Model the fold of this input.
Amino acid sequence: MNIGPKTVTVFHYTLRNAAGEELETSRGSDPSAFLYGANNIIPGLEKALKDRTAGDVFTADIAADDAYGQVDPKRQQRVPSKHLVYKGKLKPGMVVQLNTSEGRVPVTVVKAGRHSADIDTNHPLAGQALSFDIEIIEVREASAEEVAHGHAHGPGGHHH
Done:
């Protein structure tokens, strides 16, 4: 079965930046799972996975525009420190979690003050070209429930 609409793909990945530094990997833990077409992964990776099948091993180089987009300088703001989730002392360059009405989102601290912080709400990988080493483990038809919920269920996917 090929990856396409209404399929769930289970895969291992290693993510690297343009300098070749490993940023993240699923190897050594559960593989990731996603529902094709539900905007669960970055657009460039979904395009690179389309029409692939179980057993495929490949590298996908993704431009910044097809990953997390370009850095938008208007996405910096000052917030009270109490809205940030972090451990230790708040320092510039730290990636922390910002509590929002839609849940937590990663932000980068630009400047840390006593009671507030200047943060950058661009995704920490915005503006960067990325490279994914992919190993497709399984491709299967999505269940009606997965399609209705807009995400894969089970190991590597969402658990209710």
Notes: The chain has a mean pLDDT of 93. The first helix runs from residue 43 to 49. The chain has two helices and ten strands. Strands lie at 7-17, 22-25, 32-35, 57-62, 76-80, 84-85, 95-100, 103-112, 116-120, 130-141.
